[in-house]
């Protein structure tokens, strides 16, 4: 206990000396009581890194909140301090480029131990309303825990990410997408209400009807306007099981035509559409058994060469249909009726059947496998793009069949979404077409592999892909965007930039929040910090 206090006093001393706080030291000490403010080396190390493992910024201290009020007090201290300090919420640190890091500031650990190891109370657990079909969750809650809590009531959220060890606040600050998005929209289209601590330290409830400007700004807002401390998420009755189907294509236009047809069915009754539509690109033989496609093996070993891939590239459609006891008798027929309208390679359909929760949590199994081989904590030069439908064939020719050169270092996802399921009042930006594709290059860099697996090679390849889009006039947008110059952010937001900027001035006037996104400089620096 004495050591903890000593460390805390040191942390606070550092804050006072470094940033010239005008708040009473006792006020800040109160934040530290019980160990909430920490400079513990393990905490500092965690907060300095992220899943991307490509940037490292050590904060001044790490904060473990026990409530939204704690966060409001910390931000009021930052907002009111003479020279200021930055504050970044860290969900589960699954960003790629340091977006949750805080140079010259404090990182708020929203998930993980969040005080448990320090003997503090935890923010409230998910609270389900069965009558009104929603769940109230802490902003740092992981989606896997949201799922577990709602399943106890036979309910579940409607829109997901492929991987559930992400925080609610983290995905809502981006969009939160998976194969359900064509039908239900992204996760940011599935929120009733939020509690948010703004950059001035005000704790506000917001929704469509209450403080709506803040509500829309925060959704997809890259953490720029406030810290989400609570979200109210609508629920549906949870299905029991999932029929999971994959089918291969060697012809890209047949593949995209079928994907687009399937997402066009979104307004049809449940029996006449799939519940999830995704897909991926297979550019080399090894990949068919990669970390996302263990599906094919060991019971269904697949050799790409047996499918006569055109130019060495195959495309895999991935769809699911949810069901339970009441609909089990009809499921085969419903699936058959949908599959017969599609144009995949006839012998290439693979089907599996599993509990709903196992399907939603599918990527975690692969995470455990990779961890056991030491292949999870490696650099991840990921690139996620929203490509307009009108350019997707050019993208295929130039990138999948061109730049990649039959080599990749991780899964490449590709699936279309309907833009009218995205609320244009939110901060997220998408291409300006009714249908656009997510193309996600989910790479892992290895030091001991061949040249094409090295970080430098993959980073360079990402640059070539971006340059190709620019030269070919492909009006794509980055998802989970990463830009380092303000003009690139202005271009990214396009028509939305002025509103985005204006809301920043309103809700975070000192620009202290989420500086790891590198969109705005805090008011107390004149240039980008050296670590940027
Ligand atoms: P962090 O990385 O901790 O934070 C991201 C940003 O949000 C930071 O700027 C941070 O300051 C801010 N932030 C965090 N919490 C809050 C809060 N409570 N309030 C306000 N701002 C906050 N995304 C998809 O859409 N679909 C997928 O299928 C998908 N799969 C993924 C699979 C893996 C293995 C990984 C690593 C990522 C995946 N992602 C996916 C990306 C994911 O959505 C982002 O990494 C996102 O940032 C969520 O991660 P996080 O909760 O760890 O947030």
UniProtKB/TrEMBL annotation:
Residues 1-22 form the signal peptide. GO terms for molecular function: cytokinin dehydrogenase activity; FAD binding. It is an enzyme of class 1 (oxidoreductase). This is cytokinin dehydrogenase. It catalyses: N(6)-dimethylallyladenine + A + H2O = 3-methyl-2-butenal + adenine + AH2. The keyword Acyltransferase does not apply. It comes from Carya illinoinensis (Pecan). Keywords: FAD, Flavoprotein, Glycoprotein, Oxidoreductase, Signal. The lineage of its organism: Eukaryota, Viridiplantae, Streptophyta, Embryophyta, Tracheophyta.
